[in-house]
Write a structure and sequence with these properties.
CATH superfamily of the largest domain: ABC transporter type 1, transmembrane domain
Structural class: alpha/beta
Largest sheet: 6 strands, mixed
Radius of gyration: 35 Å
Number of domains: 2
Shape: elongated
Number of helices: 21
Strand order of the largest sheet: 6-7-8-3-9-10
Number of strands: 10
CATH architecture of the largest domain: Up-down Bundle
Helix content: 55-70%
CATH topology of the largest domain: ABC transporter transmembrane region fold
Strand content: 5-15%
Length: about 600
């Protein structure tokens, strides 16, 4: 992949740009946001509605056919049999056409819904790639997973309900009322009396359902976070015999979810039962009212059945709306939840910034201050130093001194609160960071591997390496012995987090990944701190090959591992306490000497 392509890989497509703009424009109007999601699909949805009307028409015609047949059977006129046959044929044709028209309707609306589902998830994934590292440090991964999977699914469910159930309900009510008003204004006015009751029930319960559903969603997000943490901690839990405590902790969380869910179920149950009783009462009254009109010969017996059928249909549709309210509330709440991510402005903005085609690897800190958002005191104050191209500099000091913060400032994960960080005399704030990062490689303390082959883990983000070059990299990373010992070699599958490999093996794969990038700046964040001495020796050999002719920034707690660094910088009290090579600092008997003595 060309570097220019790499820097543009997070650009949004037209559909995703439209989707984001819709969220921005309608951020205070959830329903408008939902409707706006389908911009570009309106024609498809229009024809879907047309075919829905056609396929559903038999439901509306059936009461009329039933009325005609009953009237023909009771009147027993000369053409009674002919009327019955014609009506039976008409309804049979209308029922059979449901199959092809339902298929077309489903294809049209399903394509639109699945397209939006894909665009939403795609936009969320891209936004997560753009959001700052500080955001990701604060936001638990379980919540993000819940938004991408569960919330988008809820929006998809709501959309499906709109284009199937709600559309059916609206059409059934409109058609039923239209036929009734055409047949009898008196009966129509009776039907209208049910509407205020439905509105009153909805108004009374809507607020509580929305609030309880919001509480339940948040508790589900928290549960998702706890479950992920529990799974990650299983080896630690098992090693310390803490299964009961961990189970109890999860049980407490599940109890909280159950309580929130129970509140939601109860309010929905009240809602459904009260509405059902109200409309059943109206239906019974309707039966008596139309029966009275038939006795007075204002309407026929067949029309009593027809009106009763239509009224039962209207009651069922209104009850359906009421039953759907919780689903609607969940879907709209999920629209807001997804919007929290898509509208977040804590992003790494690289637009219109200078793209870097090549670097020499010079790094300069000039009066740099850095302070975390939730901290009252700065981590770094007036920090100034320079690293020459190709130089290896190691940062040492106590935990919390700011060593990893310096690395994050060089990577561009953090921006200095004050002062400047220069890369080849360019202020990092003015650089297009993806283009710059294509020239760096990071080897973290804990190697991050994904569930795929060793080959794919090494070549991550690169596709232009020949087999010959890859073999050289494997040798340089001390992986040759491991690869040869595996039945499938480079094509051996790695388990989740690389659990079927040792810590040293995982780290050497991480180093091989860095080799593949052929970086000008190499960042090693305590790359050997969690390893045994044998693994550490192999890693050190790999690192010595990797750092050659590269600007290298190393953070290390084991001071013996940085003896060959060109310079060692001791970080403490917010700044640079001393700097020099290993022998100079040992002779000086300052802060580095004290740290070294503590490890002897």
């Amino acid at each position: 992949m060309e570097k220019s392509e790499q820097t543009e890989k997070y650009k949004l497509g037209p559909s995703e740009e439209a989707l984001l703009e819709n969220f921005r424009r309608n951020k205070n109007h959830t329903l408008k946001t939902l409707i706006g999601l389908y911009k570009g699909h309106y024609l498809k949805l229009f024809f879907s509605v047309v075919f829905f009307i056609i396929k559903h028409s038999s439901v509306w015609v059936l009461p009329i056919v039933t009325s005609n047949i009953i009237n023909a059977a009771t009147n027993r006129g000369e053409n009674a049999v002919k009327v019955i046959i014609i009506n039976v044929i008409v309804i049979l044709v209308m029922v059979i056409q449901n199959v092809p028209t339902n298929y077309i309707h489903t294809v049209l609306y399903a394509k639109a819904i699945r397209s939006i589902e894909r665009d939403l998830r795609s936009s969320l994934v891209r936004k997560l790639q753009q959001l700052s590292i500080a955001y990701h440090n604060e936001m638990q991964s379980g919540r993000l997973q819940s938004k991408i999977m569960r919330d988008v699914e809820q929006i998809e469910n709501l959309s499906a309900q709109i284009f199937i159930t709600i559309l059916s309900i609206m059409l059934n009510i409109v058609v039923a009322l239209s036929i009734v008003i055409f047949k009898s204004l008196t009966v129509f006015l009776f039907f209208l009396a049910t509407i205020p009751v439905a509105v009153l029930i909805i108004v009374v319960f809507r607020g509580k359902i929305k609030r309880y559903n919001s509480d339940y969603r948040k508790e589900m997000e928290e549960t998702s976070v706890r479950v992920m943490e529990m799974v990650e901690l299983i080896p630690v839990t098992r090693a310390h015999g803490l299964e009961k405590q961990e189970t109890k902790k999860m049980d407490n969380q599940l109890i909280n979810v159950a309580k929130k869910g129970l509140k939601l179920d109860i309010i929905q149950s009240y809602f459904s039962s009260i509405s059902w009783v109200a409309f059943q009462v109206f239906q019974i009254i309707c039966l008596g009212f139309t029966g009275y009109l038939a006795v007075k010969e204002y309407i026929t017996v067949g029309e009593v059945v027809m009106y009763q059928t239509y009224f039962a249909s209207i009651v069922a549709q209104v009850s359906g709306v009421i039953t759907l309210l919780p689903t609607i509330a969940k879907g709209l709440e999920s629209v807001n939840s997804v919007g929290d991510i898509l509208l977040c402005d804590d992003i790494e903005n690289n637009r219109k910034k200078k793209k870097i085609k090549s670097i020499t690897g010079e790094v300069t800190f000039k009066n740099v201050n850095f302070q975390y958002k939730d901290s009252e005191t700065p981590v770094l104050q007036n920090l100034s130093f320079s690293i020459r191209p190709g130089e290896t500099i190691a940062f040492v000091g106590p935990s919390g001194a700011g060593k990893s913060t310096i690395l994050n400032l060089v990577i561009g994960f953090f921006q200095a609160s004050a002062g400047q960080v220069f890369i080849d005399s360019e202020d990092i704030k003015d650089i297009n960071l993806p283009s710059y990062r294509s020239h760096i490689a990071v080897v973290p303390q804990n190697a991050i591997l994904f569930s795929d082959t060793i080959r794919e883990n090494i070549l991550y983000g690169t596709d232009d390496i020949s087999e010959e070059e890859l073999d050289k990299i494997i040798k340089a990373a001390n992986l040759e012995e491991l690869i040869e010992s595996l039945p499938e070699g480079l094509d051996t599958k790695i388990n989740e987090h690389g659990s079927n490999l040792s810590g040293g093996q995982r780290q050497r794969i991480s180093i091989a990944r860095a080799f593949v990038r052929n970086p000008k700046i190499l960042i090693l964040d305590e790359a050997t701190s969690a390893l045994d001495s044998i693994s550490e020796k192999k890693i050190q050999e790999s690192i010595e090959r990797l750092v050659k002719d590269r600007t290298t920034l190393v953070v290390a707690h084991r001071l013996s591992t940085i003896r060959n660094a060109d310079r060692i910088a001791v970080i403490g009290n917010g700044g640079l306490q001393e700097i020099g090579n290993y022998d100079e600092l040992m002779e000086k008997k300052g802060e580095f000497y004290k740290l070294k003595k503590l490890q002897m």
